[in-house]
Structures are given as structure tokens and as C-alpha cells.
Q: What sequence folds into this?
């Protein structure tokens, strides 16, 4: 479905493992310069999704939430830079050097709604919703450019069981 000119495709995850599998399945589509913006409440599975992405990109490091460190880097097939903007004021984001990271890495950003509009315009946005204690709904949105290409990859994922696919 299109929402304000954005295509929206949702998936359901029945467990932490399903959420990680979705991240792992999307990983092969990522390349340096890509941005994946993650949105949703605390405990919705954003960091677990990143753990799957990192595994899918052959990163060996254990993924941890960068809430207090702001940025964690995971070397892999394509370096993955994991940011958490929860505690960052909008005026401070420009000083993080996000554009520099984009030259050689894919960025995955928790609390991605705080990204500057110029970066968000090219991002694949994943909105996490807590459905129940174990179930999550993850809606993918993109407005243009590379984000739309990544949305196509999201649509093609086969990592989750077929009942986990949901058109909106």
C-alpha cells in the first residue's frame, strides 16, 4: 500500500529469532552508502534485527545496543555502522559525521526518525510495533532512491515463514 507516496510492506515476527532472521535475510542487499532507519518503542526488537544484519554481513562481533556509546562498528562483508540516536539532540546529529561513515559502510540507525531529512529520504525505514510479548510487526517504508531498491529486497525476503508476510 502507498502511504503519502511511500510504499509500505509489513512483516510479522513471532520471536526474537524470527526478527534476527529477517535482518540476516536483508543483509545481502546492503552495500556501502545504504541507510536503514529503525523506529519503534524500547524493547521492540531493533537491536535484535541489527544482530541479524551483522550476522548476514559476516560480522563476528557481538551486537550490543549503542544507546550509551552512540556508535558501534562491525567489520564484515560491508562494514556495518550501528547508531542509536535515542539520547542525541537533533542539533548534535550533524557532528556525528554520518556522511563520512557512508563512504565505506552501511548505516543502521535506531531512532532513525531523528536523522536529517536529506539522509532519511534515501533510507529504508523499518517501523517496529509490539503486537504481543513475543510478536512484532515490522513495516518497511521508502520514499525514493536506494531506499526503494532496499524495499524491493525486503519484499522478496523468504527468511520468515510465509504466514509472517503481510501486505498493508
A:
Amino acid at each position: 500500500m502507498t502511504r503519502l507516496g511511500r510504499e509500505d510492506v509489513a512483516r510479522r515476527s513471532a520471536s526474537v529469532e524470527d526478527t534476527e532472521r529477517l535482518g540476516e535475510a536483508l543483509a545481502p542487499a546492503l552495500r556501502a552508502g545504504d541507510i536503514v532507519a529503525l523506529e519503534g518503542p524500547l524493547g521492540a526488537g531493533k537491536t535484535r534485527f541489527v544482530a541479524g544484519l551483522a550476522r548476514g554481513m559476516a560480522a563476528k562481533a557481538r551486537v550490543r545496543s549503542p544507546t550509551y556509546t552512540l556508535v558501534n562498528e562491525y567489520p564484515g562483508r560491508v562494514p556495518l555502522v550501528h547508531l542509536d540516536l535515542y539520547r542525541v539532540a537533533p542539533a548534535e546529529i550533524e557532528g556525528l559525521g554520518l556522511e563520512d561513515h557512508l563512504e565505506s559502510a552501511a548505516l543502521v540507525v535506531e531512532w532513525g526518525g531523528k536523522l536529517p531529512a536529506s539522509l532519511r529520504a534515501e533510507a529504508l525505514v523499518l517501523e517496529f510495533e509490539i503486537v504481543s510479548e513475543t510478536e512484532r510487526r515490522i513495516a518497511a517504508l521508502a520514499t525514493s532512491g536506494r531506499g526503494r531498491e532496499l524495499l524491493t529486497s525486503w519484499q522478496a525476503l523468504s527468511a520468515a515463514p510465509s504466514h509472517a508476510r503481510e501486505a498493508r
